[in-house]
Write a structure and sequence with these properties.
The protein is 35% helix and 27% strand. The chain has 203 residues and is α/β, with parallel strands linked by helices. Strands 1, 2, 3, 4, 5, 6, 7, 8 and 9 form a 9-stranded mixed beta sheet that branches.
Amino acid sequence: MRIQPSIIFVFVLACTLNASAEAPVRLLASNGVKAVLNELLKQNEKTIGHPSIDIGTSSVVKQKIVAGETFDVAILTSDVIDDLIKAGKLAAGSRADVARAGVGVGVRRGTAKPDIKTPAAIKATLLHAKAITYAQDGASRPHIEKMMETLGIASEMKGKTVLVQGSDNANKAVIDGKADMVITLISEILPVSDVELAGPLPQ
């Protein structure tokens, strides 16, 4: 059975937790769960206090952990978590899947939504686009580029792809008119007021 591309986010503890009970919990997390975390923190402020939060792409957060940055909890993509557990940077026994985010297409709000319902439709849409964008360091990049290879349009899309650092900049490229559409995690499109979800990538 074919499934839509999706990325699993995993909750895990550092191998050595913060020893001070008074120090705020330090959380490292992927951009893919940013909106959810912000909402949860608002709802549970009395219970959990004010944790220290550092949010970025999974690859950037991974580099910080490998470099020895201190933290208590990490919420990252499953592949990054698995690599860090193997490297002895995370406590394997604390690993828990907490969310799954699909990969989707976003356009500037108010513009026509492109047809992306089938592989043939998204192929035509991508080839017709003047420019597209996605994060060069994002968790969804391997899925996007594999899709283009499968559709046989990888070479055609290279010249019209705007690679940027992080999903925030990718969304901004669409808002500013530098790209017709952004391809990234749906959870990174929905919170942006000036960008509208056209839909998930087709099966």
